[in-house]
Every structure is written in structure tokens, then in C-alpha cells.
Write a structure and sequence with these properties.
Length: 392
């Protein structure tokens, strides 16, 4: 019987953890904006501000957790993060049951801090064990597993939401997440301290100009990704009168497509063509949202999601690996955390950004075109980094 190597063990364990977390998030957190706007009657723009504040705090802690993982080891930070995630889900369920906005926002902040402890460390540990050319495939397996969970989660979440089981599900899922901390103990760790933590470490990675532009492009890209669980479901339910069950099914299709095709596309990615994946992927992704303005029928809804998903698969084939390939052995956690900081803020800002665009006195065609235009800007930034790289 073939013995599993340490790199294979790391990718398999991290991928399994990604599945459980994404299943939990897909089934519950993807409906949080809809809960605030439809059940608690919070305006979309205000809900966006709440989530932006929560995302900003969590994003900042991505940098901190990345530095801490460089200093104290990946496993220790992942362990605490997994436990705190479970606790945050339990108490968020209680907060939703009480329908207290301040309590819900406070718990969302705590949940985002907990998540940050996990994400930076899991991304860094894959880079610890895989060489640059193999990281594209390693992150593809992680992302495929995560999207398999995302594929199952929303279908269940849509059922729970439409039948008023949403609050109780948070408590159950929280306990479920805590139970799976035993998987983290299976991970090997090549912990080498990069020194003591200092506050100057927080911004030191941004001295790398190319990496800074890359993070800015990631911020803009993930603002568009943020539309998937904010303006997209609100637009389809309020304007096109699509049921939450159908919205959940489009998310399920998205998750299963990514799970099935992410690794296949990553096989074609390498250090030389990584930026082409980013440039074309984000444009295709943005165009998928623009397509929503063309037609309001259910078949067109699924066709638009098909285009959105293909853009996501192409873009995500190289995004994380390219960021970590810019780092050296001693600062992978820091680079993972900094990139995570910008992308988390981008995703959280996406709700506010989309809400702001949709509050303008424009046609829906023009509103979705502005989302598409944002994708074009991100693509141009990736192109500028690629040219900067080629000129050196």
C-alpha cells in the first residue's frame, strides 16, 4: 500500500476542512443579507455597512493571524480559529433568534476574526509543503473541496430559510464545526519562527510594489465576488420575483461546477500564464452579472450563473498561488494574511458597493454594467503587473 506523503496529507486534510467550513457557510451565511433585509427589514445599503464593518475587522485580523502563524506555527493558529468559528456560529444563532441587530453585528465581527485565524494559516501551510509550480493544483484541490461544500450548502440553506429553521441551524452547525478540530491534529507542521511579532510587520509586505498592486486588483475583484450573496439574490427575489429555493439551486450549480472543474483548469496553469487566467477570468465573471440585465427568465438566470461560474473557475485557478509565489519562506503567512486582508475587505465592501450602485437612479442595465466595468478595471491592473514583470 502506497504511503501518503506529507504534502499529500496536508492538501487532503486542508481540503477536507475547507469542505466542512464551506458547507457551513454556504448553508447559512449566504442567506444572512437576505435575512437582515427581508426578515428584519434592514435596508440593503445599511446591511452592507454592517457587513463592511464586520469584514474590515476580520480582514485586519487576517494579517495578524498570518504573522502569528509565521511566528508560532500554522497548526496552533488553525486550532484556535476552528474552535472560535464554531462558538461564533452558536451565539450568532442565538442573536438571530433575538433579532437584535447590534448583537448580530457584534457576533459577525467575532465570526470574521475566527475565520481569519484559519484562512491565512491554511493557505500558508500549502505553500510550505508544495513548490511553486505545484501550488496551483494544491490550491485547486482545496478550492474544489470548498466549493463542493458550497454546492450542497445553499440548497439546504434555501430550504431552512424558507421554512423558518434558519436560526436553529446556526447552533447545530456551530457544534458541528467544533467537532472537526481533530482533523487539524493530523497535519504536519514545519514551524520555523520568523522572529518576534512586531507592529511594523503588519505593513512590511506592502513594500513590495508588485504585490501591493496585486492586492489592490484582488480587492476590486473580490468586490465583484461579493455580489454573489448580496445584490444578486436581492435583485432576483425583489425585481424578478425568483424564489429563494431557486436562488439556492443556482448557488448549488455554481459550487458543483467549481468542485468538478477547478482541478482540471488548474492543470493548465503555471507561473508563466498565471496572469492571463486572472485577466480573462475576472472579465468573464463580471460579464456574467451584466447578463442578468438582459432577461428575467429562470433559464436565463441559470445561463448567467453558468458564465459567472466559468469566470470564477478561470480566475481562481491562479489567484492564491500567485500571491504566495511572491513570498519567501519566512513571510508566507504574512503574504497570505495581507492578500486575505485585501480580498476580505473587497468581498465585504462588495455588499456596500453593490447596494450603493443599486441605490442610484439608473436602469438595471446601467447598474449591472457598472459592476462589469469594475471587472474590466481589475483586469487592467493584472495586465499592468504582468507587463511590469515582463519588463524586469
Amino acid at each position: 500500500m502506497k504511503q501518503i506523503s506529507e504534502p499529500e496529507k496536508v492538501v487532503a486534510t486542508v481540503s477536507l476542512l475547507a469542505f466542512f467550513r464551506s458547507f457551513s457557510y454556504g448553508s447559512l451565511m449566504s442567506f444572512i443579507v437576505l435575512y437582515l433585509t427581508s426578515i428584519m427589514n434592514v435596508p440593503l445599503t445599511i446591511a452592507g455597512i454592517y457587513l463592511l464593518i464586520s469584514g474590515l475587522v476580520g480582514a485586519f485580523f487576517q494579517i495578524i493571524s498570518g504573522i502569528l502563524s509565521d511566528t508560532y506555527g500554522r497548526k496552533r493558529i488553525m486550532y484556535y480559529g476552528q474552535v472560535f468559528q464554531g462558538i461564533s456560529f452558536v451565539f450568532l444563532g442565538i442573536g438571530l433568534g433575538l433579532k437584535n441587530v447590534i448583537l448580530i453585528v457584534s457576533l459577525l465581527i467575532f465570526q470574521n476574526i475566527s475565520s481569519s485565524l484559519v484562512f491565512s494559516s491554511t493557505n500558508a501551510i500549502i505553500a510550505d509543503f508544495l513548490p511553486p509550480e505545484l501550488r496551483f493544483r494544491g490550491y485547486a484541490y482545496q478550492r474544489a473541496s470548498a466549493n463542493f461544500g458550497w454546492g450542497i450548502g445553499p440548497a439546504i440553506g434555501g430550504f431552512l430559510f424558507s421554512r423558518n429553521f434558519y436560526v436553529y441551524a446556526f447552533i447545530f452547525i456551530g457544534i458541528f464545526l467544533i467537532f472537526f478540530i481533530f482533523l487539524i491534529n493530523r497535519l504536519p507542521d514545519i514551524y520555523k519562527s520568523s522572529g518576534n511579532f512586531t507592529f511594523s510587520d503588519i505593513t512590511s509586505s506592502l513594500k513590495d510594489i508588485k504585490f501591493t498592486i496585486y492586492c489592490l486588483a484582488g480587492f476590486i475583484s473580490f468586490m465583484i465576488f461579493g455580489q454573489l450573496t448580496s445584490t444578486y439574490p436581492v435583485y432576483e427575489t425583489n425585481v424578478n420575483k425568483i424564489s429563494t429555493d431557486l436562488i439556492g439551486l443556482t448557488w448549488t450549480m455554481n459550487g458543483f461546477m467549481v468542485a468538478g472543474l477547478q482541478v482540471f483548469f488548474a492543470r493548465f496553469a503555471n507561473v508563466k500564464n498565471a496572469f492571463k487566467f486572472l485577466e480573462f477570468g475576472i472579465i468573464i465573471y463580471g460579464f456574467g452579472y451584466f447578463m442578468l440585465s438582459f432577461n428575467s427568465t429562470v433559464p436565463w438566470l441559470f445561463l448567467s450563473m453558468l458564465v459567472i461560474t466559468m469566470g470564477e473557475i478561470i480566475y481562481s485557478s491562479t489567484a492564491t498561488a500567485t500571491a504566495l509565489n511572491m513570498a519567501n519562506e519566512k513571510n508566507r503567512g504574512k503574504y497570505a494574511g495581507t492578500f486575505g486582508f485585501f480580498t476580505s475587505i473587497g468581498r465585504s465592501s462588495g455588499t456596500f458597493y453593490g447596494g450603493l450602485i443599486f441605490s442610484l437612479y439608473l436602469s438595471y442595465f446601467d447598474r449591472w454594467f457598472l459592476i462589469f466595468l469594475t471587472a474590466i478595471i481589475a483586469s487592467f491592473l493584472y495586465f499592468s503587473i504582468e507587463k511590469r514583470k515582463d519588463s524586469h
